[in-house]
């Protein structure tokens, strides 16, 4: 039978279940990655599992998110991560080595392998032909301990790319087009598999830009074939031996197929405050721009930065623009520096930032009040930049560079009128490679003592599922509430390993009174319940969006729909994700209503209908749930950590 790329890789890794769309499967994970903001908790959970060494082929711990280090907290976390890595056989990528996804693509990604990462943009690895999936830290800890990763066997959507991008139109515009077509909701359980004659015209970093932002559509992952272009990239990284060819079989069947003609695309932008609000740049022309930020795991490769440098060389940053560049990795940084391009950037008036997430996560470079900020990153959620009144537009490096010169939103094709030629940057045949910012576990021989600074607390315990949930709707939110709304990153991210402190910021952007109200309800021995619209929990993989609510006594979320990673995180921490059977019931209930979900434990375990009683309004409504037997057991016992402990004891 003719097979898709997705089917080939999944079938090679299935440990439990069968390749049958919609059914839960358990797969073996070859590689894991963590970053510091999610990794600290993931390793604390891994330690709690009592496994002496990681059981994957490769696990890498990156430090790229919390590198600002105002106060001791971040540096303490880094040291914890370094010592844990040495102890358990994990490669440690030091702060300064770059953003996890860019570095992993350069140095470790292998076609045909599975990669699980505690970051939602892990699908970047799909650019090199891996099946790379983002998950909560606890799922990654389980994979490091040798457990399966469970997912719903996906609906594979084939995206046929035709032709070739025209000058000034970039890979970013391809994925913005995908967002225009698929939007940011309704794609749970799907995977994008790219193919068609247009694929060969895209370099690996361009493919990675496209797979990176598939995360914004909410798909499980995106994947490109592994072909001669992949081989060349691996050769340039001195890793040709890691190459295998992976292409879809002729006649493979898909859930759906779409076609995109690359030569018809135009420069695009995601407008405030969602990556799904797509417009053509030419429709936005003349908007005054205050800030331009180039970097993030979406667009910070050698090719991206050399394109920008070639556009800007010999010119100066517009006086009203603050222009920041954060190279994606030390390798990118060093290679552009060795070619003299760093000097060109400095001379343009660029504010060079560290090779890290930086501006993308709002822990530096927050723009001024009411600013328009053009960014090459992947998320422009409300408040994420650190300035609530700012308007963030997501664009290609070409469009970003044009605004650096003009000080306004400019279709980069217009640069030709200013005598600027399109810089057709070629990938180098060999990168300058220096792996000295990694610490490989076999370099450390002696017994390692794990360092735990005062910021490191133990993961909080969750409670088993009660017979009846009774409590209050502590918060009712609308559609597309992201994990950035649930628990902010930015300057608060340093409390990731201190759950009681971090929980104080729950729903800060939406309703800063949430924490105190939830605490009161919890202290009164009642449960907190969250009610939401469509696509609840979209965006990041941060499990704190479930862990902190769990700590505050949230026991159920009732939504119109819930996104994949967040849904899994809720289950991992013993919070029951439920959806309205009749969506009109969402309108009939209010924040503050007293709810009761009688007999919930028995009903879920025995697949019986579940009724929610609204005591305040004397009405009741039915809710849906969809749990595998494994998930039911996890919920009943009170979370994955408890489940793992029980099963490792029984093993
Ligand atoms: C993000 O881009 O939102 C983050 C910060 O990288 C998150 C992870 C986190 O919150 O630590 C993600 O994408 O998963
Ligand atoms: Fe870092 Fe931004 Fe990428 Fe998240 S999206 S991993 S914060 S660069």
From TrEMBL:
One of its GO terms (cellular component) is cytosol. GO terms for biological process: tricarboxylic acid cycle. One of its GO terms (molecular function) is metal ion binding. Its cofactor is [4Fe-4S] cluster. This is Homoaconitase large subunit. It holds the Pfam family Aconitase_C. The keyword Iron-sulfur applies. It comes from Clostridium tepidiprofundi DSM 19306. The gene is hacA. Its EC number is 4.2.1.36.
């Amino acid at each position: 039978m003719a097979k898709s790329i997705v089917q080939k890789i999944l079938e090679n890794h299935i440990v439990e279940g069968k390749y049958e769309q919609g059914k839960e499967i358990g797969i073996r994970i070859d590689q894991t990655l963590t970053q510091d903001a999610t990794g600290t908790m993931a390793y604390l959970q891994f330690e709690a599992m009592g496994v002496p060494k990681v059981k994957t082929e490769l696990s890498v711990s990156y430090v790229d998110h919390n590198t600002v280090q105002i106060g001791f907290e971040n540096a303490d976390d880094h040291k914890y991560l370094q010592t844990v890595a040495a102890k358990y056989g994990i490669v440690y990528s030091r702060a300064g080595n770059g953003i996890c996804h860019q570095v992993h693509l350069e140095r470790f990604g292998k076609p045909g392998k599975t990669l699980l990462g505690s970051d939602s943009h892990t699908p970047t690895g799909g650019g090199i032909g891996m099946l790379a999936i983002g998950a909560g830290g606890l799922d990654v800890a389980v994979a490091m301990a040798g457990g399966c990763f469970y997912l719903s066997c996906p609906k594979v959507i084939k995206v046929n790319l035709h032709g070739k991008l025209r000058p000034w139109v970039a890979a970013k515009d391809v994925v913005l087009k995908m967002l225009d077509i698929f939007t940011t909701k309704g794609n749970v359980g799907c995977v994008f598999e790219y193919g068609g004659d247009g694929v060969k015209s895209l370099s690996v970093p361009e493919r990675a830009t496209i797979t990176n932002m598939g995360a914004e559509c909410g798909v499980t992952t995106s994947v490109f074939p592994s072909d001669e272009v992949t081989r060349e990239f691996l050769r340039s990284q001195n890793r040709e031996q890691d190459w295998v060819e992976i292409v879809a079989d002729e006649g493979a069947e898909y859930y759906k197929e779409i076609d995109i003609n690359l030569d018809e695309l135009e420069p695009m932008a995601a407008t405030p405050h969602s990556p799904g609000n797509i417009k053509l740049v030419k429709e936005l022309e003349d908007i005054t721009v205050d800030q331009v930020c180039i970097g993030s795991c979406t667009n910070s490769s050698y090719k991206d930065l050399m394109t920008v440098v070639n556009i800007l060389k010999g010119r100066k940053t517009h006086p009203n623009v603050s222009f920041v560049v954060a190279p994606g990795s030390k390798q990118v940084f060093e290679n552009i520096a060795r070619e003299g391009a760093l000097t060109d950037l400095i001379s343009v008036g660029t504010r060079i930032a560290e090779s890290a997430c930086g501006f993308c996560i709002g822990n530096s470079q927050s723009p001024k009040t009411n600013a328009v900020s053009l960014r090459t990153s992947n998320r422009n959620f409300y408040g994420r930049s650190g300035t609530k009144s700012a308007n963030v537009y997501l664009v290609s490096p070409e469009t970003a560079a044009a605004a650096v010169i003009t000080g306004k939103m400019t279709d980069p094709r217009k640069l030709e009128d200013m005598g600027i030629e399109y810089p057709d940057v070629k990938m180098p045949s060999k990168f300058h490679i220096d792996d000295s910012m990694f610490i490989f576990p076999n370099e450390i021989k002696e017994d390692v003592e794990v360092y735990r600074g005062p910021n490191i607390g133990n993961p909080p315990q969750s409670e088993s599922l009660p017979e009846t949930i009774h409590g209050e709707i502590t918060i009712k939110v609308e559609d597309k509430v992201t994990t950035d709304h649930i628990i902010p990153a930015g300057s608060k991210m340093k409390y990731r390993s201190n759950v009681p402190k971090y929980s104080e910021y729950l729903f800060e952007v939406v309703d800063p009174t949430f924490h105190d109200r939830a605490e009161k309800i919890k202290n009164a021995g009642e449960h907190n319940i969250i009610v939401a619209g469509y696509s609840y929990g979209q965006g990041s993989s941060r499990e704190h969006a479930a862990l902190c609510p769990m700590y505050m006594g949230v026991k159920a979320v009732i939504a119109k729909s819930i996104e994949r990673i967040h849904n899994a995180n809720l289950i991992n921490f013993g919070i029951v994700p439920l959806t309205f059977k009749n969506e009109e019931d969402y309108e009939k209930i209010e924040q503050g209503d007293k709810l009761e979900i009688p007999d919930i434990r028995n009903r879920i375990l025995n697949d019986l209908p579940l009724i929610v009683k609204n005591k305040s309004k004397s009405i009741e409504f039915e809710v849906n749930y969809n749990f595998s037997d494994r998930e039911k057991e996890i919920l009943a016992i009170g979370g994955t950590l408890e489940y793992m402990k029980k099963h490792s004891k029984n093993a």
